[in-house]
Amino acid sequence: MSIRGLKKKQPKTFKVKIITVDAEMEFSCEMKWKGKDLFDLVCRALGLRETWFFGLQYTIKGICTWLKMDKKVLDQEIPKEDPISFHFLAKFYPEKVEEELLQEITQHLFFLQVKKQILDEEIYCSPEATVLLASYAVQAKYGDYDPNFHEPGFLAHDELLPKRVLRQYQLTAEMWEEKITAWYAEHRGIARDEAEMNYLKIAQDLEMYGVNYFPIAQNKNHTDLLLGVDAKGIHIYSINNRFSPSKSFEWSAIRNISYSEKELTIKPLDKKAEVFKFFSSQLKVNKLILQLCIGNHDLFMRRRKVDSIEIQQMKAQAREEKARKKMENQRLAREKQLREEAERAKEELERRLFQLEDEARQANEALLRSQEAAELLAEKAQIAEEEAKLLAQNAAEAEQERQRLEITALKTKEEKRLMEQKMREAELIAVKLVKESDRRAKEAEHLKQDLHEAREAERKAKQRLLDITRLNYPHMVKYPQYSPTDTRDANFDKGSIKLDLKDIDLKRLSFEIERERLDYLEKSRKFEDRLKELKSEIHALKLEEKQSGLYS
């Protein structure tokens, strides 16, 4: 067979892009493939076995439509694009997620889709519940909270809360992160699949969870109601209230659902009950509603029947897988605990080692400081010793000076005493000299008076002698010569000699008195000079005594 023949036998294909909540995949499909062929290929690629919950959705003319499984892909009204894009989404929702979602991949896909619907505000959630759900989403993404690793700001790039909640409260991103982290820290030890399941268990209790809403009218002219289809039945809502239905039809109470053009009819199981009819905007909407109703009704009836062998096997495998994962998680938890304990022990040892090193460093520094202090103290001791020696020397010198000053003071006192004694003696001598001077002066006066009296007596005697001579010897006057044989003349001569002798004695006495007076004046002058010297010495001694007193 030629290469050309092989090429002719190869089937024609077209490209398809499958978009999941968190990934995109491309496949090459044969032209003859039906919707189920493409759907099975995607499920195999994902490893998904619980296929009845999912479908391939596309948008045409503004209406979200599900790819039909029993028709060829290219025969359906799909977008004309290359590659053709389909969204792989949950089409039907379980009543109880913990019992019905068996595979981890199924659970993960539901978690991602429900989380996106809450963030896009397709499902209403209270602010408190959104914070709790966000904490489980963070636990599923980041694992256990570690304050050393999950520092403030680690959630800055994650979308965790609906914009409505962020606008409703005047809180900063840091405040929201703090609230979420407070819950997140309490989920320690929860594995990723458990965190996602806890998220879904909270979300399934929300009023808008798993509900597909369609605008309807009770007549052809008005669109004033909403029809909701979910896992439990069909519900009728007012246009402004999607939380509390005004009327509900459970799947077990519905006998038949049919449509004719834009009219859709719901017949209750009770034949006496009123048949509910409503109108939709397009025929395609009625087909979509009917398709969702059939699928949800089938699942509702299947849940209330005995599980098929495939479901039983899947549940058994899920239980085994959960048990295995539980054991694995326990083992991992034990290993993690042991590792954390080992890390804590290591950190404690490192801390202790660091502490010991720090203590050793501090001890070395203290030792160095002690050595420096010892050297400094030794230097100070040496300086102190030298200062002590110097002080001792100064003290000795001071003692010697003190003794010298004491001796000087004693000498000064002795000299002062001697000088005072000398002064007293000088004063006594001066007094004596004054007295002697007075006495001598008096004596001199007496002597002068005696001398005067003697001279006066001498004069009188001479006069008397002359008078006598004149009377007795007149010839003596005429003839002055006398005879040596004359006795009168001899007596006259004797008297003259006596007068001359007496005159000589008076002169000598006068001379002696004058000499004594001069001696006395000389002695007085010398004594005054001596008194002046004594006064100068006493004044100098007083000054020295004052200076020695100040020095002491």
From TrEMBL:
Among SMART domains, the record links this protein to: B41, FERM_C
Q: Which GO terms describe its molecular function?
A: actin binding
What GO cellular-component annotations does this UniProt entry give?
Answer: cell projection; cytoplasm; nucleus; plasma membrane
Mainly resides where?
membrane
Where in the numbering of this chain does the FERM domain appear?
Answer: 14-304
Q: Which PROSITE patterns match?
A: FERM_2, FERM_3
Query: Could you tell me where this protein is found in the cell?
Result: Cell membrane; Cell projection; Cytoplasm; Nucleus
Provide the topology term for how it sits in the membrane.
Peripheral membrane protein
**What is a single Pfam family found in this protein's UniProt entry?**
ERM_C
Supply the alphabetized keyword list.
Answer: Cell membrane, Cell projection, Coiled coil, Cytoplasm, Membrane, Nucleus, Phosphoprotein, Ubl conjugation
Task: Give binding positions for a 1,2-diacyl-sn-glycero-3-phospho-(1D-myo-inositol).
Answer: 68-71, 287
Question: Which SUPFAM superfamilies would you find in this protein's record?
Answer: Moesin tail domain, PH domain-like, Second domain of FERM, Ubiquitin-like
Q: Which residues form a coiled coil?
A: 311-464, 517-544
Source domain of life: Eukaryota
Record keyword Cytoplasm present: yes
Q: Which InterPro entries match?
A: Band_41_domain, ERM, ERM_C_dom, ERM_FERM_C, ERM_helical, Ez/rad/moesin-like, FERM/acyl-CoA-bd_prot_sf, FERM_2
- The name this protein goes by in its record: Merlin
